[in-house]
Write a structure and sequence with these properties.
This protein is mostly helical. It contains 6 helices and 3 strands, in the order E-H-H-E-E-H-H-H-H. Strands 1-3-2 form a 3-stranded antiparallel beta sheet, with no helix packed on it.
């Protein structure tokens, strides 16, 4: 059974509405069991008028109170229990006790002092509902107006919560997109590094081929220069030998004639 002390909002004692295979409520049975007042009992007209007017005001206040703060309902052992909000007027002591209970529950449930805290929000909501109950009992119209303020605050908080959740979801999407973009960039960097390595390998191969060709050309040029030098030396020696032979064949007289 739900205890009336688990909430800052004051409730009456739970009432059994129906059991399994029963359709009548315990409240109706209690009304049937209560003896009615005899019709022969005289009632002063003025007292009856004042009493009926007061009862009508009290009933109207209770109806407004139950509309603003609906009763709690729960099933236990196949039994439906209902717990109405208390319509007992409050005193200054009740308000002080409510503040002490709020502070105690905030401490016991370790509610955070700052930031978003569901526990703190729940306890302050219960405290506001209890204040709304007390105001409604004193003045139903003031309670209705205060309930509009409460509903507006709830809608505002719900809108902020939706905005917060949307912002968190948007941030998560952006974070995932950033991670995906980072992965794509890293993959692109890896591909470019692989391409760079392949180009460097090709460059090294071309350098090796160029050096081999240059070395072969240098060797061939050296061989050609050596061969050309040997041919030149051979022609010089041949020329010298032919000149010596020619000199030996020419007589001194012929040489003198030639000299003339």
């Amino acid at each position: 059974m739900i205890s009336s002390t688990d909430s800052l909002l004051k409730y009456d004692c739970p009432e059994l509405v129906s059991k399994k295979n029963e359709t009548k409520s315990s409240k109706d049975q209690a009304l049937k069991a209560t003896p009615t007042q005899p019709a022969s009992v005289p009632v002063p007209p003025s007292t009856k008028h004042r009493s009926s007017s007061s009862d009508a005001i009290n009933q109207q206040t209770e109806d407004v109170l139950h509309v603003i703060l609906p009763p709690r309902k729960w099933m236990e052992n196949d039994e439906l229990w209902v717990q109405q909000v208390s319509s007992r007027p409050c005193t200054r002591t009740d308000v002080i006790q409510l503040q002490e209970e709020l502070d105690l529950k905030l401490y016991q449930r370790q509610a955070r002092d700052m930031g978003i805290c569901p526990v703190r929000r729940e306890l302050y909501t219960q405290c506001f509902d209890e204040l709304l109950r007390q105001v409604t009992i004193s003045c139903a119209e003031r309670g209705l107006l205060l309930s509009r303020v409460r509903d507006e605050l709830r809608r505002t908080i719900s809108a902020y919560q939706t905005l917060f959740e949307t912002s968190v979801a948007f941030g998560m999407r952006k974070a995932l997109q950033a991670d995906q973009g980072k992965m794509d960039t890293e993959k692109k960097i890896a591909d470019l590094e692989n391409e760079k390595s392949e180009l460097e390998r090709q460059l090294n191969e071309q350098k090796a081929i160029f050096e081999a060709i240059e070395r072969q050309e240098n060797e061939r040029r050296q061989i050609e220069e050596k061969k050309h030098a040997e041919e030149t030396e051979f022609l010089k020696r041949t020329n010298l030998q032919l000149k010596n032979q020619l000199d030996a064949l020419i007589t001194p007289m012929e040489r003198a004639q030639l000299d003339r």
